[in-house]
Amino acid sequence: xxxxxxxxxxxxxxxxxxxxxxxxxxxxxxxxxxxxxxxxxxxxxxxxxxxxxxxxxxxxxxxxxxxxxxxxxxxxxxxxxxxxxxxxxxxxxxxxxxxxxxxxxxxxxxxxxxx
Amino acid sequence: xxxxxxxxxxxxxxxxxxxxxxxxxxxxxxxxxxxxxxxxxxxxxxxxxxxxxxxxxxxxxxxxxxxxxxxxxxxxxxxxxxxxxxxxxxxxxxxxxxxxxxxxxxxxxxxxx
Lengths: 115, 113
Hints:
By secondary structure, chain A is mainly β.
């Protein structure tokens, strides 16, 4: 499968613990996005990378959240000191290295449950 | 800030019925619009997109959408739904910076056979 891959698919953690998710985008895509989706809501934008540069961050991305894309390939999203309100599906998407935005391809997401 | 409104939270139809899902966006400038679908247990997939040109856009699986600039709308249609169309449908627009998608809250479509 050459689509966007996310790991793990599910994560259950205790409140206060740190968690890290990984996203492997489609190999030729230079743009990578993280979104969060809660029940009954559409995906909400968190952050955007072009190659290794983090170019945009939503105000939803609190200080406890950090994302990296060290070599412009895979990306990680870390949540420190998790809270119950962090429980959600975390989606990663990638898009092509064209000049403009054309289409985003989404992974299956990581479902986080904070207990 | 840009936003997307989807009027129908849950739509229930019988097979062969016609479908129209509403979508309105807030931005008045140049817009790029999308409909994504999420089948149960699967990832978001693109149904169709509008960037410019013919305002009637045809997508996969018999879906189409019409961009009406004067109404700020991009409604999704299908003449005859199938049980396999049961899914969640999201309308989205590119943000003003052109860097990310802004999604509506989604519409759950349930089709009974």
